[in-house]
């Protein structure tokens, strides 16, 4: 028996990996976050599979389902939105499974920031403009940020910043980012990336808050800040340069 944490992708049902789909199809138990994971993915579950929506369950209740499957010798597909490596809350589940001696593995998925970049038709690492991407969030009602990971500190380098779980605090984000990036710094907000109801907003730190409020965006969005969003004059990458040695 194995618990498999599967990155279900950013929202579009066809953005799950082939491996992730195969895990779903072969697992007699499927735990999924119903508020975020597309319902179409459940169509890949085998006939008679036990489906458990974890959206309103506590960590202990989720673990109980996993342990029951373990006792019955049944594999579990544990679906998380995006990719399990960032902001997925899998670490505490893994810690509990380790303590119980339950085996597990991880199937990566398409993260929300990658889907946002695709929607924006932008590369977040542009030669001569930006080669570093900071993936972060803000506290609000969530777990407090560790010391030294405030936006003022993280933004000191001027690196491209991608903020998850933060759009509902857009005014505060602007206030904290302007000192490092400037009011004219390009910003994009992508809500429900890859989904049919996707919304893309473009602006600057000076006007993005008003655009977000006017659009009524309060969740399921990433905020991207950085010059790479509008860069047009930059050197070609050395990767495909004619002067690069290919021997």
TrEMBL record:
Span of domain Tetrapyrrole methylase: 3-208
Alphabetically ordered keywords of this record: Cobalamin biosynthesis, Methyltransferase, S-adenosyl-L-methionine, Transferase
InterPro entries assigned: 4pyrrol_Mease (IPR000878), 4pyrrol_Methylase_sf (IPR035996), 4pyrrole_Mease_sub1 (IPR014777), 4pyrrole_Mease_sub2 (IPR014776), Cbl_synth_CobM/CibF (IPR006362), Siro_Cobalamin_biosynth (IPR050161), Uropor_MeTrfase_CS (IPR003043)
Annotated pathway: Cofactor biosynthesis; adenosylcobalamin biosynthesis
One Pfam family named in its UniProt record: TP_methylase
Record-stated family: Belongs to the precorrin methyltransferase family.
PANTHER family: COBALT-PRECORRIN-4 C(11)-METHYLTRANSFERASE, SIROHEME SYNTHASE-RELATED
Name of the protein in question: Precorrin-4 C(11)-methyltransferase
Organism whose genome encodes this protein: Saccharopolyspora taberi
């Amino acid at each position: 028996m194995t618990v498999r944490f599967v990155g279900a992708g950013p929202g579009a049902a066809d953005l799950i990996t082939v491996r992730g789909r195969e895990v779903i199809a072969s697992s007699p138990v499927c735990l999924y976050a119903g508020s975020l994971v597309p319902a179409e993915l459940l169509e890949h579950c085998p006939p008679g599979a036990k489906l458990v929506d974890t959206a309103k369950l506590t960590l202990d209740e989720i673990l109980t389902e996993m342990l029951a499957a373990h006792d019955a010798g049944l594999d579990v597909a544990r679906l998380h939105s995006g990719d399990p490596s960032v902001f997925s809350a899998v670490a505490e589940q893994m810690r509990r499974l380790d303590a119980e001696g339950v085996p597990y593995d991880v199937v990566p998925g398409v993260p929300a920031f990658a889907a946002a970049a695709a929607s924006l038709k932008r590369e977040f690492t542009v030669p001569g403009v930006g080669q570093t991407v900071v993936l972060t969030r803000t506290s609000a009602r969530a777990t407090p940020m560790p010391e030294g990971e405030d936006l003022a500190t993280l933004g000191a380098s001027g690196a491209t910043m991608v903020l998850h779980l933060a759009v509902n605090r857009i005014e505060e984000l602007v206030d904290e980012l302007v000192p490092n990036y400037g009011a004219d710094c390009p910003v994009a907000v992508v809500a429900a990336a890859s989904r049919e109801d996707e919304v893309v907003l473009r602006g600057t730190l000076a006007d993005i808050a008003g655009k977000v409020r006017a659009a009524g965006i309060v969740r399921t969005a990433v905020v991207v800040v950085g010059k790479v969003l509008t860069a047009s004059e930059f050197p070609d990458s050395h990767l495909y340069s004619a002067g690069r040695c290919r021997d």
